[in-house]
Write a structure and sequence with these properties.
The protein is α/β, with parallel strands linked by helices. It contains 10 helices and 8 strands. Helix 4 links the parallel strand 4 and strand 5. The mean pLDDT is 97. The structure holds the ligand O=c1ccn([C@@H]2O[C@H](COP(=O)(O)O)[C@@H](O)[C@H]2O)c(=O)[nH]1. Its EC number is 4.1.1.23. It catalyses: orotidine 5'-phosphate + H(+) = UMP + CO2.
């Protein structure tokens, strides 16, 4: 792992019981943990609090997307779990993004609040189907600048757009990139993908990696190999 690139393991398990065997073998020094919709819905807030208690940096990936008041309350509830980072969808608009920021403004140790731009599973054909005519990179940049102007800390994007975001939004605007695939790993439903060393070479702060680790024969060895590849 380089000084600035950290792997967050996406714990996309059905329930806490299925997730603990891997978590018990991991240390907060070698990775952060991402809890998404499936595991949070089944395992709940106490599971997240336990990860925080074990000193893991937790990215609670619930991608809130609703009216500003609802998002503000949801972000606050997520933040009070003690997590390191929470997120919302940038396409909820500027007032919604500002509400997300305001939700944690009075906290002593607020989580980072970031916005999802264009899902890494989406192609330009997918964007056209939902009425977006610009290229994926242009749309990601537009949403990243909107998130920046609303005072958010960074964005979820694909590694393909990471350099353009740093150029447009500055180097302290965090880029969180799923869609990371070691050479030979199955692409699955991801479309805008990059290898871990290529992404680290771009200085990307957070690499989110799920199935290439969790579905490996030896998930801990898979994580170690990825961390090694970042420093090679
Ligand atoms: O644009 C996005 C936003 C979030 N994700 C999440 O990241 C992980 C990726 O898992 P893999 O198994 O490595 O594909 C997953 O939890 C997604 O919900 C994303 O992939 N893309």
């Amino acid at each position: 792992m380089t000084a600035q690139t950290t792997v967050f393991v996406a714990l996309d398990y059905a329930d806490a019981q299925s997730a603990w065997p891997l978590i018990d073998k991991l240390s907060p020094q070698e990775c952060g943990l991402k809890v998404g919709k499936e595991l949070f819905t089944s395992a709940g807030p106490d599971f997240v609090r336990e990860l925080v208690k074990r000193d893991f940096k937790v990215f609670l990936d619930l991608k809130f997307h609703d009216i500003p008041t609802t998002v503000k309350k949801a972000v606050r509830a997520a933040a009070e779990l003690g997590v390191w980072m929470v997120n919302v969808h940038a396409s909820g608009g500027k007032r919604m993004l500002e509400a997300a920021r305001e939700a944690v403004a009075d906290m002593q140790n607020p989580p980072l609040v970031i916005a999802v731009t264009v899902l890494t599973s989406m192609t330009e054909d997918d964007l056209r189907e939902i009425g977006i005519r610009s290229s994926a990179e242009q749309h990601v940049l537009h949403l990243a600048q909107l998130a920046k102007s609303a005072g958010l800390d960074g964005v979820v994007c694909s590694a393909w757009e990471a350099q353009a975001i740093a150029d447009a939004c500055g180097h302290d605007f965090i880029r969180v990139t799923p869609g990371i695939r070691p050479v030979g790993a199955e692409q699955g439903d991801q479309r805008r993908i990059m290898t871990p060393p290529e992404a680290a070479a771009l200085g990307i702060e957070v690499l989110v990696i799920g199935r290439p680790i969790t579905q490996a024969k030896d998930p801990v060895a898979a994580l170690h190999a990825i961390n090694q590849s970042l420093t090679a």
